[in-house]
Amino acid sequence: MPSDSFTLRPATASDEADIKTLIKLVRINPMDLDWRRFLLASTPDGGLAACAQIKPHADGTRELASLAVSPAWRGRGLARRLVEALIAREARPIYLTCRSGLESFYQKFGFRALEKDELTPYYRRLQKLANTMMKLGGGAETLSVMRLDE
Ligand SMILES: CC(C)(COP(=O)(O)OP(=O)(O)OC[C@H]1O[C@@H](n2cnc3c(N)ncnc32)[C@H](O)[C@@H]1OP(=O)(O)O)[C@@H](O)C(=O)NCCC(=O)NCCS
């Protein structure tokens, strides 16, 4: 099924359970999943194919988060469509966090990985904690904090 068979639409309350199920399935951060902030890609029969959100933080920054594409629908440009639609309507800067292996994916949209001395206190704490946990888990990856400025 080509990418343009899928519809992008804002989530509604009835999508809440499906969003949580997809986020759990792809094993990314299950916190802060308020459906009101989500943009979805729906299959022609109305199923949830992919989702993403822009999360506001208390310090005034915004974060692209919860990007998840159902395994069956990957490689069709759905993540690209969601990211492009969300960043098109947001002011800059936009932050995100990802495992280091995904930096090249987000670079396609203009995001740049930040050095430690560029991080806000929130992201500095988060990166330190996540990297400790990832190291304990025995993986080779670290947590990248990226930002889109233009
Ligand atoms: C990563 C993920 C969102 C990609 O979704 P997708 O719909 O298959 O991606 P797209 O088809 O839109 O790909 C867009 C571009 O990124 C590239 N890309 C896709 N997955 C990639 C990956 N894991 N690493 C690097 N590049 C990737 C594609 O080749 C494509 O490149 P092009 O446009 O230059 O041809 C999806 O695999 C996923 O949900 N993974 C699990 C959850 C996750 O890790 N989310 C990110 C949390 S930070």
Task: Give a short synopsis of this structure.
This protein has 150 residues and is α+β, with helices and mostly antiparallel strands.
Q: Could you explain how this protein is built, in words?
A:
- The chain is α+β, with helices and mostly antiparallel strands and 150 residues long.
- It folds into 2 domains: 1-91, Gcn5-related N-acetyltransferase (GNAT) (Aminopeptidase), CATH 3.40.630; 93-150, no CATH class.
- It has 4 helices and 7 strands; from the N terminus they run βαβββαβαβαβ.
- It has helices spanning 16-26, 78-88, 103-107, 121-136, and strands at 7-10, 38-42, 48-56, 62-69, 94-99, 112-113, 143-148.
- The structure holds coenzyme A.
- Coenzyme A is lined by residues 26, 28, 67-69, 74-80, 98, 102, 104-105, 108.
